[in-house]
Amino acid sequence: MNKSLPVELLEKYISGRCSDDEILLVKQWYKSFGHDYDHASALDVHEESELKERMYQNILDKIEAADHKEQKVRSLSKWYKISAAAAVIIACTATFITLKQKHAADKQQALVNSDMVVITNNTNQIYKSVLPDHSAVWIKPHSKLSFPKIFSTSARMVSMAGECFFEVTKNPQKPFVISSRSIITKVWGTSFLIRDRDDKPSADVSVLTGKVSVSIKDKVTGNLTDLKINKDEVMIYPHQKVVYLAAQHTLKPLAKSNEPALQIWNRVNLSFDNKPLSAIIPVLNSKFHVHITVSNAKFNQYVLTADLSGFNLPEVLEALKKSLNVNYEMKQNEIQLV
Question: What does the alpha-carbon distance between residue 145 and residue 132 come to, in Å, rounded to a whole number?
Answer without folding.
Answer: 14
